[in-house]
Amino acid sequence: MTATVEQVATDGQAEPVRRGRRPQRSPLARQEDRAGWMFVLPWVIGFLVFTAGPMIASLVLSFTDYQMIQAPRSVGLDNYRELFNDPRVLKSLSNTFVYAAMFVPLGTIFALVLAMMLMRVGKAGGFFRTAFYLPEMTPAVAAGAMFLLLLNGQQGLVNKVLGWVGINGPNWTTDPNWLKPSLAMVSLWTLGGTVVIYLAALNGVPKQLYEAADLDGAGPLTKFFRITVPMISGALFFTVITNTIAAMQMFDQAYTMFYGPQQKASASEESLVYMVYLFQNAFQFFKMGFASAMAWLLFVIILLITFLQFRIGNRYVYYHGER
Asked: Which helix (H) or strand (E) holds 34?
């Protein structure tokens, strides 16, 4: 045996340890490993079959002309060249960016206000937490259909309520200038998960920090910006990233409100978000190869946006346990 032997102190005793040989794992440790893999296996299979597999298939299809009625035909980079020559791709991307720029800040502020209100309701907090989260369980198609009626310019409830206070409401679903703001408003319906995250973060802020600020004579705004926001910055950072990714992939509400069977004829280019145009190319125009290229372009855009958010946002995030 040529393995090196060292003396390692263990409980005051010198014990030889051989290098070059893997330590023997106990039967219990191996059994725990097998149990862990058994628990993880369903997720691994689901990821490979429903996520990784389709992603690889779409990458291959993005280099082909595939119309679903015939075998894919390789076209090289033609689909990607067409992406930058198709004006509707650029228009849908522009609409999506504008929508995301409105929804993410508005949704963050709205959810934080609701979470801070929940902090003050006391025993009724459980009821309101459930009430705020229930819209997350509502199908997006049903929510889109409901808001299509509520935002109707002539007979919608929203404009009727505005009329009671003397405000002439706009045509939310037909005026091109109001199409993206109306989509952003509809998306606020599904912020229950963000509210719950902010509420948990607010409950984790040490109360002694507020007590010390009171002793120093700090006002509400000072405490909010100097204590609350820094202490929940991790939750804010997480939800901004996830809401940005969700906004870039928004489809259900836009399709239901503007591209359903009854709205197709009157749909405006201002309501064409990227995922709707991708869906049209895939399942209406049967251009699967081009739609796959669109999907990978969106993947790269989201990847770059998330990378920039991490590079910039990490400078302003406070993590417990770090200096």
From this structure: helix 27-47
